[in-house]
Design brief:
Helix content is 81%, strand content 0%. It is mostly helical. The mean pLDDT is 80.
């Protein structure tokens, strides 16, 4: 069998020429084996009809196998010549023939260096697309988070509005002013508590010394 990959022929036919020849070889070989079995069967019937014949079926099988080996050796030689001729004259595309789907390469020829540059540029563009997609996903996630925060803030504002309305109903005045006053009083209360804690510590230390 030929070792030439014949890639262009494979592109045109849709199968490798070597595969085609191998299938033809197997088909011929199977037919040869079947023919030998038929010949052997005919010989057994003919000899069985001859009175006093001393030829046994095993002897006939040995003769059939020898004849099959002889035929196969000659068949292999003939097939090798046929395969060479078919691969060169029938299943071969001449070097000057260009397939229709490859004519674009003739119109727009590219060197290996130019093709590699295009490949590198394509790879860079793919990386940029992946990076932009990641950024887009991050922005969408941040947008969803902002929506959640906005919803919580709206709830807090609604709560403040409710408290302010309650304050107005009970004559507490402006809610913002009340809230600021409450914050100041809370800070003063924290200072007083801190002062009380310090005095309490000093008293405990004095008691321990006494």
């Amino acid at each position: 069998m030929s070792v030439d990959p014949m890639a262009y022929e494979t592109q045109f036919f849709g199968f490798t020429p070597q595969t085609c020849m191998l299938r033809v070889y197997i088909a011929f070989q199977d037919y040869l084996f079947e023919m030998m079995l038929v010949v052997e069967g005919v010989m057994l019937k003919k000899l069985d009809g001859i009175p006093g014949c001393q030829v046994s079926p095993s002897q006939i099988r040995k003769c059939t196998e020898k004849f099959l080996l002889f035929m196969k050796e000659h068949f292999d030689k003939l097939f090798a010549k046929m395969e060479e001729m078919l691969l060169q004259l029938v299943l071969n595309i001449p070097k000057n023939v260009l397939l229709p789907e490859d004519r674009v390469h003739e119109q727009y020829p590219y060197s290996k260096e130019e093709f590699q540059a295009l490949q590198d540029e394509l790879q860079q563009l793919q990386q940029q697309c992946r990076a932009e997609a990641a950024v887009e996903q991050a922005l969408l996630a941040e947008l969803e988070e902002q929506k959640a925060v906005k919803a919580e803030l709206e709830k807090i504002l609604q709560c403040f509005d409710g408290v302010e309305n309650i304050c107005r109903e009970h004559g507490a005045g402006n809610f913002k002013e009340s809230f600021a006053l409450l914050t100041q009083n809370s800070k003063k209360l924290q200072d007083v508590l801190k002062e009380v804690e310090e005095k309490s510590k000093k008293m405990k230390q004095h008691d321990q010394l006494m």
